[in-house]
Specification:
The chain has about 200 residues and is mostly helical. Helices cover about 75% and strands about 0% of the residues. Helix 2 runs antiparallel to helix 5. The longest helix is centred in the C-terminal third of the chain and has 41 residues. The protein is flat, with a radius of gyration of 20 Å.
Length: about 200
């Protein structure tokens, strides 16, 4: 029997899991880099760390599916690493004046509400598929944070302004996709209650 390479073995030592764990480790790094007002070189380094972590978010899932080594631990850690990284970055940019506090509150309130609805749906045996708008929201949000972290003018563009515009778009998509998920939950729940009523 052929020996499976270490990076494709199930468990915590395969490449997709190591990428996920590295993304978790990037959270305190981001906090440290943004702790004091960074100058242009430090802001550039912070942006590189964030972008690398976001690329890792796509890569670890793709590799896990390709090599068929998905795991419960990976499925649990992957979204946590993503949300912690985004939350830490947004919160640390508030005292720097790079993002409005109210906008961070709206974005994070949406995540908490949708997360709570997902848990309720799972406990009730409901499966509500994620909408495509939510995926666009994630892409816009990640791109916005990349520009905001760069912050300083470069290559002929105002990175901060571009980031704020993209973050506005991300926030609007976030709110709409959250409402879509809430309406989807309500629809599925009504259908299930109607089916149970007919059965009785």
């Amino acid at each position: 029997m052929s020996k499976v390479a270490w990076y494709r073995r199930p468990g915590f030592t395969n490449l997709p899991m190591l990428i996920t764990l590295a993304r978790c480790a990037a959270v305190p790094v981001m906090v440290w880099l943004l702790w004091s007002t960074p100058d242009a070189p430090a802001a550039f380094c912070t942006m590189l760390v964030f972008v690398t972590a976001m690329v890792g978010d796509v890569l670890d899932g793709w590799l896990a599916r390709k090599w068929n080594i998905q795991s419960v631990a990976g499925a649990f850690l992957d979204p946590i690493a993503d949300k912690l990284l985004v939350l830490a970055t947004l919160v640390m940019m508030i005292p720097l004046g790079w993002v409005p506090a109210w906008m961070v509150l709206v974005l994070e309130a949406r995540e908490l509400i949708v997360g709570a609805l997902r848990q309720i749906a799972v406990s009730e045996g409901l499966v509500i598929p994620a909408g495509s708008l939510g995926k666009f929201k994630t892409a816009y949000q990640s791109t916005a944070l990349g520009f905001l972290l760069f912050h300083y003018d470069g290559v002929g563009i105002n990175a901060h302004t571009v980031g704020i515009v993209l973050l506005w778009q991300s926030m609007l998509m976030s709110v709409v996709s959250g409402l879509q998920y809430a309406l989807g939950y309500a629809k599925h729940r009504r259908a299930r209650l109607a089916a149970e009523a007919e059965a009785n």
